[in-house]
């Protein structure tokens, strides 16, 4: 099957599925990236991968690489020259125009790191950690002009261990997405059933997180607070925790317990943060 792949230059959510495609019997005709392999061109959280980038994979496998710095018009001209069956999108920071989505013969499919219709939007992994989810997930869905609203082809649930980092969580999601993607493509070679429309009554959308979204709350469970701090530590210098009119700047979570509630306690640079069902042991910045 002939495929065009859209992704971010160094995100594991783009790299792991692409690597699987390049090693499969499918033919990746072209790779489209949203920058020139440089970070900072867009607001999506992107984490450096130890070995690869989209550009390096394109070079290794001899696949043409397009950067959208040249604009959609120039990109469309090159894509039209490909006899593409499926377009696959993962962790791509820009919405695809209808003229691009209409090019493939079979489908234009996005890999989204949540169980849609929940957590639509540009940073679903952040919001799933913030809400204290234990089971995350990925969805393969049809690309429509409306963000993340297309009918769903495949979904996989992904469990997250306590204390997992954001980058490790993205890798787990990417691996689940890779398996779902290969399964879907294998069935497309034969016959694939219709995609299932999303249930709008269960839909939720979250935009990019703001400063206030990193504030910790004593109303959270201890496990939720511990996992949120652990996951977001690579993205954040500190997490504000406000109690009795004072703001404590939490930097790292060591452990949590949910056996009994404890009051706020300070021991040098270690703090016991009270939670709804227990406490979190953490480090904080001195004022």
Task: Walk me through the structure.
26% of the residues lie in helices and 26% in strands. It is of the alpha/beta class. It has two domains: 2-202, Rossmann fold (3-Layer(aba) Sandwich), CATH 3.40.50.170; 211-285. A hairpin with a 2-residue loop joins β8 and β9. α1 runs parallel beside α6. The radius of gyration is 21 Å and the shape is elongated. Residues 37-50 have low confidence and may be disordered.
Question: What is the topological layout?
Answer:
Elements: E1 2-7, H1 12-22, E2 27-33, H2 54-61, E3 65-67, H3 72-80, E4 86-90, H4 98-101, E5 107-112, H5 124-130, E6 135-142, E7 152-159, H6 166-190, H7 222-232, E8 239-243, E9 246-257, E10 265-267, E11 270-274, E12 279-285
Parallel strand pairs: 1-2, 1-4, 2-3, 4-5
Antiparallel strand pairs: 5-6, 6-7, 8-9, 9-12, 10-11, 11-12
Helix pairs in contact: 1-6
Question: What portion of residues belong to β-strands?
Answer: 25-35%
Unreliable runs, pLDDT <50, ≥5 residues?
37-50
Gyration radius, to the nearest Å? 21 Å
- The number of domains is 2
The count of DSSP E runs of length 2 or more, i.e. the number of strands, is 12
Question: What is the CATH class of the largest domain?
Answer: Alpha Beta
Give the class from helix and strand content and strand pairing: alpha/beta
What name goes with the CATH superfamily of the largest domain? Formyl transferase, N-terminal domain
